[in-house]
Write a structure and sequence with these properties.
single chain; about 400 residues; alpha/beta; Enolase-like, domain 1; TIM Barrel; 2 domains; 7-stranded parallel beta sheet; 3-stranded antiparallel beta sheet; 12 helices; 14 strands; about 35% helix; about 15% strand; globular; glucarate dehydratase
Length: about 400
């Protein structure tokens, strides 16, 4: 089996509402680049890549001629063809590699008639648990209300729990002053006794605020405190003084950083992202290292559509040491580009696709619809807030949104 062509199509799929985070916002939609890798046996493998609200089409078009004739089974050679570690000092192609690896695994699975999880050692679970993943947000075009106050947050979490069955709740923070977000977090704990909690301000708290927040939640049912401050050294300082497990998805995203965390522990839990790490296989390898050194693992979300969600599910299916619910932005989407529409949660879990390869196929009408929408709307800067022109955060940040002012987008 040989690669004969690569197609990349940028789509933008609406969210229920614009989602706020510490560095800016998802502007009411996700921009994703869908990758189709064609083989000489007529099969097509699927991949997906984000880009912070921007298209990655040009990058895939540039790499495509160099992969013509490559055997999708030869995944180690693929890694060096795309993301040679020395050449990557000049051009970091890790996420490009990930998307093409997804598609090659999809091709191999289809060719052999087996799911990707069988190529990775076989599944140990049939479904993967997910956290609710709560955001502060602007009102949505379809009537979704703002989320700014503790009461609004609890009401939203209650609705998601009723619809999807979540028993773990993650609050994406770093938007409002830490005192306000602490009030919101404790309101969640009070509203859902027995459920687990996690908080992620994306590294923008000062050391003092990170310590203060961590100490203030020690009595709650926390899974972990994720990236409260920037850097492994910052995490180590918080970990020394706070009785809550610490997690990261930002400063342990390759094996060099994982080794540093093994030698001097800063994070108790590593959130593995199939794009950030350069593919599913790299995440499986990293999980093995974590298992050896008793570091917890979870599955990270970087704003997925159904193709990348499938990679997250296959990863979650094969990890015996996956003891935390996965993250997903998925329930914030208004639609998807895969056949059958969005995957469904049952009891806070999503079933692992069991068809050949990744087990998902494109709905080409939806791809065309959302490719046209991308051409109409264009991209957006992930690191800017559409409701605060001219704003940008510092790290550590002190430029918080005002929680007393209702959230509203400019006309």
């Amino acid at each position: 089996m040989k690669i004969t062509g690569i197609r990349a199509t940028t789509v933008t799929v609406p969210l229920e509402a614009p989602l706020l985070h510490s560095n800016g916002a998802h502007w009411g939609r996700f921009v994703r680049t869908i990758v189709e890798v064609e083989a000489d046996n007529g099969l097509v493998g699927l991949g997906e890549m984000g880009g912070g609200g921007e298209s990655a089409e040009a990058a895939f078009q540039a790499i495509a001629p160099h992969l013509a004739g490559h055997d999708p089974f030869e995944l180690e050679a693929l890694r060096f063809k795309i993301a040679n570690p020395t050449a990557s000092l000049y051009n970091n192609r890790t996420q490009i590699l990930a998307a093409i690896e997804f598609a090659c695994l999809d091709l191999v699975g289809q060719h052999l008639g087996v799911p990707v999880y069988d190529l990775l050692g076989g599944r140990v679970r049939d479904s993967v648990p997910f956290a609710s993943y709560l955001f502060y947000r602007y009102p949505g075009a379809g009537g979704s209300p703002e989320i700014r106050t503790p009461d609004q947050l609890v009401e939203h979490a209650r609705a998601l729990k009723a619809e999807h069955g979540f028993t773990v709740h993650k609050l994406k923070g770093g938007v409002f002053p830490p005192g306000h977000e602490l009030e919101c977090y404790r309101a969640l704990a009070k509203a859902f006794p027995g459920d687990r909690l996690r908080y992620d301000p994306n590294s923008v708290l000062s050391l003092e605020e990170g310590l203060r927040f961590g100490k203030a939640i020690e009595d709650l049912d926390n899974d972990y405190l994720e990236d409260p401050v920037l850097g492994l050294e910052g995490l180590r300082l918080v970990r020394e003084r706070v009785g809550v497990p610490l997690a990261t998805n930002t400063v342990v995203v390759n094996f060099e950083q994982l080794a540093a965390n093994v030698l001097r522990r800063g994070a108790d839990v590593v959130l593995l992202d199939t794009t950030f790490w350069g593919g599913i296989r790299a995440c499986v390898k990293a999980a093995g290292v974590c298992e050896t050194f008793q570091i917890g693992v979870a599955v990270h979300s970087s704003g997925e559509l159904g193709i990348q969600l499938a990679t997250m599910l296959h990863l979650g299916a094969v990890l015996p040491n996956l003891t935390y619910a996965a993250d997903a932005h998925y329930h914030h989407l208004a639609d998807d580009v895969i056949e059958g529409g969005p995957m469904r949660y049952t009891g806070g879990r999503i079933a692992v696709p069991s068809g050949p390869g990744l087990g998902v196929r494109l709905d080409h009408d939806k791809v065309a619809e959302y490719a046209a929408l991308y051409k109409e709307l264009g991209g957006y800067p992930y690191d800017r807030d559409p409701g605060r022109p001219g704003w940008y955060p510092l790290v550590p940040n002190d430029r918080w949104a005002d929680p007393s002012v209702p959230l509203a987008l400019l006309p």
